[in-house]
Amino acid sequence: MHIGHLNVPKPELNDEAIFHDSWLKLYLHYSRQIENEGPGVIALKALEEDPRAQALQGQYISRGSGASIFEIKKLAIWYLWAAHEFGSTVAERNLNKFLDSERIPVINILWVLGIEVDETIELGNGIRIISIKEMPDSPEKEHFLKEEIFDRYRFLNDLPMPKAAITYTCEVKKITNPESYDREKDNHFVTFSSLLYDVALLLNTVNGISCIPFYSTSYSSREMPMGMFCGRSGSAPRHEIWGSKSSKLSASNALDLN
C-alpha cells in the first residue's frame, strides 16, 4: 500500500498538558482529518480497501498483557500521527509491516521501587534498566513523576513512586482470542515477564540495594500500529512492606549479576 504525503495539519499541544489530555486531543484532531472529506480521508479509504486491513476487522490485537479490538479508523489515525512523528516514509513502511506480519513488537515493563539509575543499563538479552525520565510517555510515567496525586489514584497517596523500570521488547502474536487469552498468552512474553521479576529479585543481592516490583504493564511500540492508540493494561503485586527510599544503582554493580 502506498499512501504518500498528505496535507494534514499537525495539532498544537501544550507541553504542560497531562498525557490523557494530549492523547485525547491527538485522537480528536486526527479523527476530524478522516471525516467529511478531510485531508486524511485518503488514508482511511486506502485502508478500507486493503484486504489485509479488512481481514483484521473484529479481531483483537495483542499488546502483551492485554488486547484491544481492531478498528480501521484507529489504524488511519495512527498513520496520520506517525507521519508527523516519524515522516510519511517510515510511517508507511511500518504500516505495511504491521499488516503483513503475524507478530508485532511490544515493550514489557516492570516498574520497580528502591533503585535509581543515571543512564540506561543494558543487562544483556535485550533486558534493560531505564530511568523513569527516559521511559516512553505513558499515564504511569506521568503519574509517577507528578508530585500531586490525581484523585483517581488517591489510594496510592501513602506509597512511594518508582524511579526506574526493568524492560524487555519482544514480539507477540498480532491476533489473539480474548476468551482464551490467559491460556494462550505468548510463551515468549510470559517467560520474559517472569524474568523481569527475577531480575528485580536478583538486584537485592547488590550491596545497599533493595528492589521491589511495583507495577507490571506492556505497551504497543509507538513506532508501530497502533502505538499509543492501542490502549494499555497492567497489574501490581501485593506487598505488606514498602521501601521509602531509593538507592543509586551503577552499571558496574548491575552487570556483576551476569
Give helix % range: 25-40%
Number of domains: 2
Shape: elongated
What is the alpha-carbon Rg in Å?
Answer: 20 Å
Structure in words:
The protein contains nine helices and eleven strands. Mean pLDDT is 85; it is low at 147-156. It starts with 18 loop residues before the first helix and ends with a helix. A hairpin with a 2-residue loop joins strand 5 (121-124) and strand 6 (127-131). Helix 1 crosses helix 4 (72-86), helix 2 (41-48) packs across helix 4 and helix 4 packs antiparallel against helix 5. With 258 residues, the chain is α+β, with helices and mostly antiparallel strands. 34% of the residues lie in helices and 21% in strands. It folds into two domains: 19-100, no CATH class; 103-255, no CATH class. The protein is elongated and about 60 Å long.
Brief overview:
Helix 1 packs across helix 4, helix 2 crosses helix 4 and helix 4 runs antiparallel to helix 5. It contains 9 helices and 11 strands.
Key structural traits:
258 residues; 11 strands; alpha+beta; 34% helix; 21% strand; six-stranded antiparallel beta sheet
